[in-house]
Design a protein that fits this description.
heteropentamer; B: 502 residues; alpha+beta; 9-stranded mixed sheet; 16 helices; C: 283 residues; mainly alpha; elongated; disordered N terminus; binds adenosine-5'-triphosphate; binds magnesium ion; binds nickel (II) ion; cell membrane (chain D); transmembrane helix (chain D); MetI-like (chain D); MetI-like_sf (chain D); Peptide/nickel transport system permease protein (chain D)
């Protein structure tokens, strides 16, 4: 890992205004807002894969969209190679997007159903003048080879492909502009198990070959663990824990990470448990409690958690967690349960 | 004769305003005589006069005054007597220059005085040969002065609005209720002076109900189904069919209605040269029109070709053969003489949605095409057409006319006499005709007057700015049980002597 | 995930040639109509405006299969020649609103916010105003005739297209492919017109087909009021209005043009349904 | 509470609409060629008469001044006096508008009565003969000019079968309902075709929804499934269409009222356009605009009731 | 968990076949499926998307409508559900047999309050009066763990979170204490922590109510954590069946084997997964022979020509593969 991060996220917050009723407006009540991101900070280094996990609605997609500037954060800054991306103007912005690409979750929605594969790729290549006009067909073939699609795929429409193949088209489109960073938002969650593996394998291979930096957003712990160098665990718009993936998964330092791991079904039918990993559900992001966001569900909660929000602090080299129980997970987990 | 019952009559449109002086339209005019009586009444053929509220009348020898004697014991519908004062007030109101648009009919009246409790004397500004006819016209109807003046409102117009909602009247019927746009109910006036054949008071009917049925087909359907007893304005296309319908009387009441095309005769229209200003062109176009064909197509044989610009039912009409019998060769040679051998482009205003006018225009288009004239049809609504007409910027338009008075002076004043409205706003002008008309307005010698009118007709029919087409009767379909209903040539509907079989 | 297998499989390209049956029948009707509209003289046995005083109001015979009208004109020839005008009405009265409405709708749907709020009020105002009355008023101001009728219809008509397109663009712009376009660094113009619009326009096209049929009907309503096509041109609505007084004596004057309207309307709506089926996006 | 504020918002939104229509009407009316006096007096009036009468109506003043007077009067609830009928516009509107209202209401009801069961039948027998017959019939309804349908109805049900009166308008309420039945049916004919088409396709959309399957899996009776689960959801989009079409329905009333001799606002509207009766025309458009807006509001509320997601 | 806890009924499915008449031809969505569910037993059904899992459940429930057509036998308490008249079937549905759907968002009617949707089930199958129904509804909401039930019953589905919707749907299914619960991917749309809660809830209910459960999923982890026996479906057929422990320990069908290999496991970070190449076939043009052969690395000529029958390998174990021995012997993937 190089010393200078390619992307650094610094205290980023993002809120979404919620339409609120005229009566409340007349009554002078303050507007409601969803706090999708709350003071999120981390860094990504060139060539690494950062996994981001968390439950539905915790702000993963919002973060991913901020990273490629589909959304502008309300607070904090995102820097790409040291430059704050919110200052980029139209042409610069396009140049930035050329280098930081995104792949989307929905294999059915992320491709224009009326454009053939070659039209999709051709558009990407010609708008950014990646190749002279006459070289474009050859480049399209190259890209199809890269993502392991047959050559005759070029003249077909998205509906003629399976979900996995569509995701590969999406990857090819992102790769067409030869980016440095790819943000993959739930790339495989819509796919069948057997097909998931194909796409994951492709991603792993491409990263090796093209020295890509990858930000992999997913809710499937097994997958994230499998492909990431480092992992960030998010909860209600905040990062609860971030660290090397083996470290986070083998000995989580935050009760939420642990609950998440416990809840994930094991592939071993001989290890069964009837204990529920975490009670309750994600609180509404409209009124995040003042203390630790996980306090309402945490089995280890104590008074301080409800009033003071824990900051992200170091637990081990390159491993941080946001929990008042700084020793959580440091001991064998059986003991931790007893605390 | 049988008495009693209510006759329901289908009209094409509702009345607007039931004031005899301030109303504007035929929808009012043609039923007013049922509500308001006049001093004199028209004869059934519409050409003469007979006793109304007045039983005796005498024009002084110098023609400068008229003495009238009121009928005994006449009353308004509220039972109050009709006095000479009411008469004088009503006539002066009718003659007031500021009131309505009909005052020209009695413009010769200078003053009205009363003598005793029976006699009214009209003092004229000049001899008026049409004065007696004018006293049969709706605007000279007699109203109760006291009731009218007691009505709320500051001006005469305001009072009229209030009065006309519940008029106290002198005619055979009184207004009972009026549901705007739908039905108007009249009931018999118990105080009416008229006597029926059986010696008892008129009217025979207990009442008359007008139903407004704007769609021709609906009106006929309703008559067929027996829901109404009579329907006006039967489309000519249905006349033949209804004549043969067993349960109906298809009446064709003689009328003064003439159908014609008005041609703008100004040398220029909106800065462009106007071929129609050339009398030869107008004559050519007249000869090119096959009136019989138009009558066949549009009126389905109901009408007959015009023999003068005025209808044959108008007094002092002359002419015995159709004007401009179809002669395409003559038409072509006239065009050549006029220098329009190749024809020209022109246009005609047609009342939007009016099937008869569209039919005529379509036929004209075909006929004039023979002369190389390309006729463009412009369907417009009435207000638009009137505007263009009044501004004198139209090229041609279709029109129809009915007299309001049993005298040729009204139609002649509009058609011929240029000071009134520029001869139908065409800009046509003939000094001799204007002079003759001026003279005729004061000429009380009937023969001399007839000669004047003969000459006027001769001039106008030869070079006037119109294409006379046809005259038609009033087509009214009545249930077989209706008797004694009359529509006179002036258009007025008389229900006073109508009766129904039980 | 309920992903139907049929959606996943790879299908040979020739499958696309399987056109919906409704589309084929609609296209045949409209195709024939257009053919007649362009070359009426080939089909009509008589001059549609020539009078025949000897054959007024004659019922259907071999010489005049649809009979003659009150001018002795051949009804069949008039019905055939009316195709020219009525197809013209169908197209001209709707193309303008379709194009303008689509552009406005695309903009409003994409921009949202204030544009959308203002648009909402305009839509309210236009649909609140009695349509026929507005048309009558406009035709009265501008004068009668088809050209002005198109203007009048257009002033009102675009709103419906704009609504449809705006609603659909709003849906489409939330889909990932719109975001993908943004991430690819494409300009908004490109995203709206190259990506969103082709996917959002189907309902507008389907409505367009219905609208063409409605335009013919409106033309006939205006014909009834004398504001549509001007005589002697043959137009179905005008013919029906002409025949109104002869319904009991000469039914053929109005019935045959009526049938023509019904068939053409059917053709347009079949075509619309078929197009909808054909253009339905397969995902 | 959310419903209340939803309604409040819709009412506030009505204001600009009505103002807009007010201005448009005023301008449009004055753009019409011709003036009230010439429209009223016809060909026979002489210029002096026309000018005298126009002046007495205040039409000789500059148009902005007229507009200010008009606005001022509207705000004091005075819509002026009809030029042709010489009656206060409010009186006329109060006489005529309820008639049209009753007519359109009946038409809407009849249209629903026709459309709902047939749409169900067509949707359930999709692509079968019954479907084709139903759709074909409605297509004919959709393609027939209103006046033609009207005359046909009158001929068949009125004059020939004598089931209904041939046009006109009764005296008592029941009589009026009886008189209005045929015109309402005429109006409903094409309206129900539009509704049927929409409802059929939304039923087809809903009938395959998972919640309908879930309802069947619950073992509910078919009738309950069809009404509570299918119809209610299918109606949501139809109600929107219904609201949008109300304006068109009023438009159709213009011709229907003429054919059936119903003394309603539609005919009054046409008469006042042709008669250049400015005050009536203005008053009537405003009244209609308010009315249609209220109908929108009603459909919105109904929709909010049908679909709790609408009134957030 | 062993079978036979309750004394209730058992489900026996024999030769269940479901065809759909599609414009592209006949689609064989479910082919000749045999399945037994004992009282109190929890059987898992896995397979790829489109393999016919949902259609199997719907066929059992009698929810297949035109253009679908169901043949075979579904025996429940000695009666054949397939041949049963509609009214009789209606009485069984929702009371004796209940079903939970995949997507709680779409399976709950968006325009009706949740309480009504729950109570209509009781109206259909019980004689409870309004107050008793309310009480039962509250009880059910408590069972599935929805707090503030009184208020929640009057709310609409869109006011619920995903997990609560799923729980509400379970409550509805449980309303009449069914003997058999058909659960079609009840947790796919949910987060892991919620999934965990729901699955454990199902296990509890199974124990408490002595219910049989058929659990459809495509997540092998879910099967491993909850079910007693499992069946693997591919292209409309059951290709392997057995107790969960047996199948996980030694898959005998190459598809099962591939499925297990596709899932990343702890300890094997950033290595290639053993994926199954290719895509599942379309139902209207299934390959001849074994439907899996185009994607199978064990395939030989016989697989391309003949369809392997589902053969029994001792008690409770069945597999449809000519090469199940080679598959079993191949290098372990665990
Ligand atoms: N455009 C938006 N307007 C309002 N709220 C939004 C918007 N986008 C996201 N949110 C809210 O922000 C929060 C975070 O959403 P986000 O999509 O980032 O979650 P996520 O972690 O990606 O969830 P998932 O796993 O379901 O995709 C959610 O509560 C969501 O409802
Ligand atoms: N109504 C229908 N008409 C035609 N084909 C159908 C119908 N319902 C289901 N199918 C087909 O039956 C097959 C099996 O579908 P099914 O829903 O059972 O799959 P599944 O295994 O449940 O998949 P998933 O995991 O996506 O839910 C699919 O190919 C589907 O396309
Ligand atoms: Mg997301
Ligand atoms: Mg399924
Ligand atoms: Ni699935």
């Amino acid at each position: 890992m190089s010393a200078v991060p390619i992307i650094s996220v610094d205290g980023v917050s993002k809120q979404f205004g919620v339409s609120y009723s005229l009566m409340r407006r007349l009554a002078g009540e303050p507007p409601l807002a969803v706090h999708a991101l709350n003071n999120v900070s981390f860094e990504v280094h060139r060539g690494e894969t950062l996994g981001i996990v968390g439950e539905s609605g915790c702000g993963k997609s919002t973060l991913a969209r901020c990273l490629v500037r589909l959304l502008d954060p309300d607070g904090g800054a995102i820097r790409f190679e040291g430059r704050d991306i919110s200052t980029l103007r139209s042409a610069e912005r396009r140049a930035f997007n050329k280098r930081v690409q995104m792949i989307f979750q929905d294999p059915y929605g992320s491709l224009n159903p009326r454009m053939t594969v070659s039209q999709v790729l051709n558009e990407a290549l010609s708008v950014h003048r990646m190749r002279p006009k006459r070289d474009i067909p050859a480049r399209i073939i190259e890209l199809l080879d890269l993502v392991r699609l047959p050559h005759d795929a070029a003249s077909r429409h998205p509906h003629e492909f399976s979900g996995g193949q569509r995701q590969r088209i999406g990857i090819a489109r992102a790769l067409a502009v030869e980016p440095d960073v790819i943000v993959a938002d739930e790339l495989v969650s819509a796919l069948d198990v057997s097909v998931q593996a194909q796409v994951i394998n492709l991603l792993l291979r491409l990263q090796e070959e093209l020295h890509l930096t990858l930000i992999f957003v997913a809710h499937d712990l097994r997958l994230v663990r499998h492909i990431s160098h480092r992992v960030a665990v998010m909860y209600l718009g905040q990062i609860m824990e971030i660290g090397p993936s083996e470290g986070v998964f083998a000995s989580p330092r935050h009760p939420y990470s642990k609950a998440l791991l416990d809840a994930a079904p094991e592939l071993d039918p001989t290890h069964r448990s009837r204990v529920v990993a975490a009670r309750g559900e994600l609180p509404s992001p409209l009124n995040v409690p003042p203390g630790c966001p996980f306090a309402s569900r945490c089995p280890h909660v104590f008074d301080r958690c409800r009033v003071e929000r824990p900051a992200l602090t170091k637990r081990a080299p390159a491993h941080s967690a946001a929990c008042h129980l700084v020793d959580f997970g440091a001991m064998p987990s059986a003991l931790a349960d007893a605390v | 004769v049988e008495r009693g019952g209510v006759m329901t009559y289908g009209r094409y449109a509702d009345s607007l305003f039931l004031d005899p002086v301030l109303n504007d339209a035929n929808v009012d005019i043609w039923i007013l005589s049922n509500l308001y009586d006049t001093l004199l009444l028209p004869t059934d053929d519409g050409k003469g006069v007979q006793a109304g509220l007045a039983t005796e009348w005498k024009v002084s020898d110098d023609g400068m005054s008229v003495n009238l004697t009121l009928r005994d014991g006449i009353q308004f519908s509220d039972g109050s007597p009709i006095t000479p004062a009411d008469v004088a007030w009503s006539l002066k109101r009718a003659a007031n220059k500021d009131n309505g648009i009909w005052n020209f009919l009695v413009s010769s009246i200078d003053d009205v005085t009363t003598e005793g409790d029976k006699t009214v004397v009209l003092k004229l500004k000049h001899p008026d040969p049409a004065i007696l006819a004018a006293l049969t016209v709706f605007n000279t109807a007699i109203l109760p002065q006291k009731v009218f003046e007691a009505a709320a409102g500051a001006t005469d117009a305001d009072k009229a609005k209030v009065f006309a909602e519940h008029p106290v009247s002198s005619g055979p019927f009184v207004l009972q209720s009026w549901d705007r746009g739908s039905t108007m109910k009249l009931v018999r006036n118990e105080h009416y002076w008229g006597k029926g054949e059986d010696g008892k008071p008129l009217p025979y009917l207990d009442g008359v109900t007008f139903e407004v049925l704007p769609d021709d087909a609906t009106r006929i359907l309703k008559l067929n189904s027996g829901e109404i007893d009579g329907a006006e304005f039967i489309p000519y296309s249905r006349v033949e069919e209804l004549k043969s319908a067993g349960n109906l009387n298809m009446e064709l009441f003689p009328s003064t209605r003439v159908q014609y095309v008005t041609m703008n005769a100004r040398p220029q229209i909106k800065g462009k040269d106007n071929p129609l200003s050339n009398p030869k062109v107008r004559q050519a176009m007249n000869y090119a029109v096959n009136k019989d064909a138009i009558i066949a197509i549009v009126t389905h044989g109901v009408g007959k070709p015009l023999t003068s610009y005025m209808s044959s039912a108008t007094p002092m009409h002359t002419g015995d053969k159709p004007l401009y019998a179809y002669d395409i060769e003559k038409a072509k040679s006239l065009m050549k003489e006029a220098g329009f051998e190749k024809g020209f482009d022109t246009s005609i205003l047609v009342l939007a949605g009016n099937q008869d006018e569209i039919g005529i225009a379509t036929a004209l288009q075909q006929m004039w095409a023979e002369l190389g004239i390309k006729l463009e049809l412009q369907q417009v609504d009435n207000a638009t057409r009137t505007q263009q007409y009044r501004d004198g910027v139209f090229t041609m338009r279709e029109a129809a006319w009915t007299d309001d008075i049993a005298d040729p002076n009204e139609i002649t004043s509009y058609f011929v006499y240029s000071p009134t409205i520029d001869a139908l706003h065409t800009g046509w002008k003939n000094e001799e005709a204007d002079k003759l008309f001026d003279a005729s307005q004061k000429e009380i010698d009937a023969t001399k007057r007839a000669a004047q009118y003969a000459r006027i007709q001769e001039i106008y029919n030869a070079e006037g700015p119109i294409v006379p087409l046809y005259e038609t009767p009033y087509p009214v379909a009545l249930s077989k049980k209706v008797h004694g209903f009359l529509q006179i040539p002036l258009g007025n509907n008389f229900f006073g002597r109508a009766w129904l079989d039980k | 995930m309920s992903v139907a297998v049929e959606k996943i499989g790879l299908y040979p390209r020739f499958r696309r040639l399987a056109l919906p049956r409704t589309l084929i029948s609609g296209a045949i009707i409209i195709g024939v109509s257009l053919l007649i509209a362009f070359f009426p003289a080939l089909f009509a046995p008589y001059d549609p405006i020539a009078f025949d005083y000897k054959a007024l109001l004659k019922g259907p015979t071999l010489a005049h299969p649809f009979g003659t009208d009150s001018f002795g004109r051949d009804v069949l020839s008039r019905v055939i020649h009316a195709y020219t005008i009525d197809m013209q009405i169908a197209v001209f009265a709707t193309v303008g609103p379709f194009i303008f409405g689509t552009i406005v709708g695309a903009y409003v749907g994409y921009a949202g916010g204030l544009a959308e709020a203002i648009f909402g009020r305009v839509v309210d105002a236009v649909i609140t105003f009695p349509f026929l009355v507005l048309v009558i008023a406009i035709v009265s101001v501008l004068g009668p005739g088809l050209g002005n009728m198109y203007v009048a219809v257009g002033i009102v008509g675009w709103v419906f297209y704009a609504r449809l397109v705006a609603a659909e663009v709003k849906v489409q712009k939330r889909l990932d492919y719109a975001d993908a376009g943004r991430v690819m660094g494409y300009t908004p113009m490109r995203i709206v017109f190259r990506h969103l619009l082709p996917n959002a326009i189907t309902p507008a096209i389907v409505y367009w087909m219905t609208d063409m049929a409605l335009a013919i009907l409106l033309g006939s309503s205006l014909g009834y009021l004398g504001l549509g096509a001007q005589p002697p041109a043959a137009e179905w609505g005008v013919q029906i209005a002409d025949g109104k007084n002869f319904m009991s004596t000469a039914w053929w004057i109005s019935v045959f043009p009526g049938i023509a309207i019904v068939i053409t309307g059917l053709g347009f709506s079949l075509l619309g349904d078929g197009l909808a089926q054909l253009m339905r996006v397969r995902r | 509470m959310p419903l209340f504020s939803f309604v409040l918002r819709r009412i506030l939104q009505m204001i600009p609409t009505v103002v807009f229509i007010l201005v448009v009407t005023f301008v449009l009316v004055r753009l019409l060629p011709g003036d009230p006096a010439s429209a009223m007096l016809g060909d026979r009036a002489i210029d002096a008469d026309v000018e005298r009468i126009n002046a007495s109506l205040g039409l000789d003043k500059p148009i902005p001044v007229q507009f200010l007077y008009f606005v001022k009067n509207v705000f004091t609830g005075d819509l002026g006096t009809s030029i042709a009928l010489k009656l206060p516009v409010t009186t006329i509107i109060m006489q005529r508008l309820p008639v049209t209202l009753m007519l359109t209401l009946m038409a809407a009801l009849l249209a629903l009565i026709l459309a709902v069961p047939l749409a169900f039948l067509a949707a359930l027998k999709r692509e079968q003969t019954a479907d084709a017959v139903i759709r074909g019939t409605f297509q004919v309804g959709l393609s027939m000019p209103v006046f033609y349908v009207g005359i046909l109805m009158l001929t068949v049900f009125g004059a020939t079968l004598k089931w209904f009166p041939v046009g006109g308008y009764g005296d008592t309420f029941a009589d009026r309902l009886y008189h209005l039945f045929l015109p309402a049916l005429t109006l409903a004919f094409s309206f129900s075709a539009v509704l049927m088409r929409n409802l059929r396709s939304s039923i087809i959309g809903v009938i395959n929804a998972e919640y309908v399957d879930f309802a069947r899996a619950k073992g509910l009776r078919p009738r309950i499934i069809m009404t509570r689960h299918v119809l209610r959801n299918a109606l949501i989009s139809t109600v929107t269409l219904f609201g949008l079409q109300i304006g068109t329905l009023f438009g159709g009333a213009v011709i229907t009222e003429t054919v059936f001799a119903v003394p309603g606002a539609g005919r009054l509207m046409i008469d006042s356009i042709y008669g250049r009766d400015y005050p009536v025309l203005q008053g009537l458009t405003i009244a209609l605009a308010v009315l249609v807006s209220l109908t929108f509001l009603a459909t919105d509320i109904f929709q909010a009731w049908l679909d709790p997601r609408v009134a957030r | 968990m062993s079978a036979g806890i309750g004394t209730g009924l058992g489900l026996t499915v024999r030769g269940l076949t479901t065809l759909f008449d599609t414009p592209r031809g006949m689609a064989l969505a479910v082919a000749d499926v045999d399945l037994d569910v004992g009282p109190g037993e929890m059987v898992g059904l896995v397979g790829e998307s489109g393999s016919g899992k949902s259609v199997t459940l719907r066929s059992i429930m009698g929810l297949i409508q035109t253009p679908g057509h169901v043949t075979g036998k579904v025996e429940w308490g000695g009666r054949d559900l397939v041949a049963m008249p509609a009214e009789e079937l209606r009485r069984i549905r929702g009371s004796e047999i209940a079903m939970i759907f995949q997507e709680p968002m779409t399976a709950l009617n968006p325009v009706l309050p949740v309480g009504l949707q729950l109570e209509e089930n009781l109206v259909a199958h019980t004689r409870l009066n309004a107050r008793e129904r309310r009480a039962r509804a509250l009880e059910l909401m408590n069972i599935v763990g929805i707090p503030a039930a009184e208020r929640r019953l009057n709310e609409y589905p869109h006011q619920f979170s995903g997990g609560m919707r799923q729980r509400a749907m379970i409550a509805i299914a449980l309303a009449c204490s069914p003997k058999l619960l058909l659960a079609d991917e009840p947790t796919t749309a949910l987060d892991v922590t919620i999934q965990d809660q729901i699955l454990k809830l199902l296990l509890d209910l199974r124990d408490r109510l002595a219910m049989s459960v058929v659990l459809v999923t495509h997540d092998l982890g879910v099967i491993a954590g909850t079910c007693d026996r499992m069946a693997v479906m591919y292209a409309g057929r059951i290709v392997e069946m057995g107790t969960v422990i047996d199948v996980f320990r030694q898959p005998r069908h190459p598809y099962t084997r591939g499925l297990l290999g596709s899932v990343p496991r702890a300890g094997a970070v950033r290595t290639m997964l053993s994926s199954i190449e290719g895509t599942p076939p379309g139902l209207t043009d299934l390959p001849a022979g074994c439907a899996f052969h185009p994607r199978c690395s064990f395939a030989t000529d016989i697989c391309r020509q003949e369809r392997p029958p589902l053969q029994s390998l001792g008690a409770d174990r069945k597999v449809a593969c000519f090469h199940h021995d080679r598959v079993a012997a191949a290098e372990a993937i665990l």
